[in-house]
User: Fold MFS transporter from Paraperlucidibaca wandonensis.
Amino acid sequence: MTQPRANSAGRVLFASLIGTTIEFFDFYIYATAAVLVFPALFFPNADPTTAMLQSLATFAVAFFARPLGSAVFGHFGDRVGRKATLVAALLTMGLSTVAIGFLPTYAQIGVLAPALLALCRFGQGLGLGGEWGGAVLLATENAPPGKRAWFGMFPQLGAPLGFLLSSGTFLALTHFLSNEDFTTWGWRIPFIASSLLVFIGLYVRLRITETPSFAKAIERNERVEVPMFTLFREHSRTLVLGTVIALTVFVVFYLMTVFALSWGTSSLGYSRETFLQLQMISMVFFALTIPLSAVLADRYGRRITLMVVAALTMIFGLAFEPLFVANDPMACLLFLILGLSIMGLGYGPLGTMLSELFPTSVRYTGASLTFNLAGIFGASLAPYAATWLATEFGIAAVGGYMAVAAGLSLFALSKTPETQYRED
Assistant:
């Protein structure tokens, strides 16, 4: 009698989706709070612009922690296995997020408050550095032939779902609490409540078994002693190209979320509630274009799909000035929908392609590090740089910044072979 597969498709896809949804929920509630409340609570002695920039600087800390998370969790993911490493990454991210909800403010403990905030943010980045790559491998290494991009897009759906959940939480708090209550204690609720989501994620993750690809790697004795060393020694060119390929999606996403929220609620005069509503509507389009892009990538290839998206991103850069303006919510909504739809088309097949670039023995480390190095160059400084560009040169300069990033990704894709038909 034939034994059934230990991991059913439904269990694998749900485990990969729920984990990244939780991780990105935790990540985005920080991004939202960094714009809405952290400047006043943790950097009160600075002028409003400087306080905002300081708050965004702590936001950037996580992106520099993510490659370290890739190295640490990637090592154990490639040596010990995907399942145990995914559980550890989720715990690291979750505990760091809950701790933020209990932090004292600058008024209570002085300069130690922003230092502790940065430390917790570092922990968030460390956990996410190990989470994303493992979730993608959990999906793609269990995928049937011809369906790797489809399976690989489920972890990617965690990004819009996590954003919708975090924005919806802040929107509800804004609606039901006064500004004073929200600033005093209401902002802590999403951070503390994330502990419930972590328990759900742990329960699901602990019920899965190891991926077939990693099990085969053990049977064939393909594991290497130090995956990071092997990665840099034998796959450094691939690492660089993959990082540049992933650059655009980070720039687009954080310009359309963190920067847009900051600029829209300050310089353009939109209320916090209105702009969060506009972002939530546009995030639905982000979620819808992810599965569409996966279908295209499985049919036509990952490389050509991402090249078309990079070209569209360059064109979209021209839309910043005419669409992202004050006192026109419909134009602003169109701007956000276009940007996040393009983001979804690029983000859907990205995880699959990055995982396919590397052999099983270093795949967890390679895919994670590539993705998170792109986070440093594409996302960590994007809100900060865009705020400076918009202040000094106008909003059109921010569109130019996006177009340049897309051009770099397009060049890297032109130097990378198609990965669709690669075997383990």
In short: The radius of gyration is 21 Å. The first helix runs from residue 9 to 36.
